[in-house]
Amino acid sequence: MTQQLTLDSVRVHALSVPLRRPIVAKVGTFEQWPFILIDVRTKEGVVGHSYLEPYVAKAVKPITQVIENIADEFKGKPIAPLDVYGGAMKTLHLNGRQGMTVIALSGLDMAIWDALAKAANLSLASLLGGSPGPIRAYNTNGLWLIPKEEIAAEAKSLVAQGGFKAIKMRLGRATLKDDIEAIRIVRDAVGDDIILMSDFNQGLTLGEALQRMHGLDDQGLYWFEEPIAYDDYEGCAQITREMKTPLSIGENIYGSRDFLKAVNAKAADLFMPDLMRIGGVTGWMRSAAIAGAAGLPLSSHLYSPISAQLLRVSESADWLEWSDWAEPFLAEPFEAKDGHAVVSGKPGNGLAWNEAALKKYAMSR
Question: DSSP for 173-234?
């Protein structure tokens, strides 16, 4: 029988972690990556863990404040994820259901689900009605807009890191010729049997994207990801209609309602929600049900340990985006082998902190 839990307190750690391979993309260059680690402590002694990746260090303080504000509303009360999620959403109506408010709620939601799974002595996947096991994964940890002479070695390294059968590269270089050349270098380095995804990080206008996508449509890429601004569903739908290469969006969609809007707009062939924006575990499950009913393949964006659990219970699960950015502060890194990540049967979502790392990478707030 699942133990009833009562929220006692919430502890937050702010970290800045160096990236093994710096991000070089249309959105900027990053050598450090900020994290917000969340511990939901219960009166029964069960602690739930989660983390957020807010992209920029300046966002850490306001997000943390919202996390603490939401948590204050539920201290001393029994915690049930759907009740907390629904109650918090009602309080967010006046401040908006996107941006930092939803990000903060997502972090709390993930930690509460972790605590509930631990109280039930079940993995998160098992608590949600699924089972532990493997998920096919692609390596997203490199092939940014780096110099061409570095591409081949990095592509080989990404494949070798976990025996991956699929990797992602970033495109949107100065010219179509440059993008084609970068793809050729990767193909020559890793072979044609490696599946290759592409991401443009919203770096193109619609006109630029249409020209570039048509020029790349015969390159055999698994998907084009976010060539234009994520919320231009009409433009995304036009690209989806015109290209044979599938279009993938979703990492910037906030909540299941906007997810449904994107699906209804036929804005993409494939979707990849991000736990920080989609609404944590609760928002993911609601969106996964929509994708499953629509027959749309569902992949993940970041948050590998938790996303893998959720893909195990998603009807139209496609790919896990595997990232090692959180590895420095995890007590047990979430590894990939032979192109798959494996959800274990351990209770909860699999997260535990390396306490020494929390001190080493602590960010002043």
Answer: -SSHHHHHHHHHHHHHHH-TTSEEEEE-TT-S-HHHHHHHHHHHTTS--S-EE--S-TT-HH
**In angstroms, rounded to a whole number, what is the distance separating the alpha carbons of residues 320 and 150?**
25
Give the pTM.
0.95
Do 301 and 226 contact (CB within 8 A), yes or no?
Answer: no
Residue 319 contacts by C-beta under 8 Å, 6 or more apart in sequence?
Answer: 136, 137, 138, 166, 272, 299, 300
CA distance 137 to 323: 10
**What CATH number should be reported for the domain holding residue 160?**
3.20.20.120
285-337 pLDDT, tens digit per residue, is 999 999 999 999 999 999 999 999 999 999 999 999 999 999 999 999 999 99
Average pLDDT of 8-14? Answer: 97
173 and 279 both lie in a single domain: yes
Degrees (nearest 5) of the Cα angle 37, 157, 303?
20
Say if residues 162 and 336 touch (Cβ distance below 8 Å): yes
Same domain, 110 and 135: no
Domain that holds residue 221: 126-343
Shared-domain flag, residues 90 and 144 = no
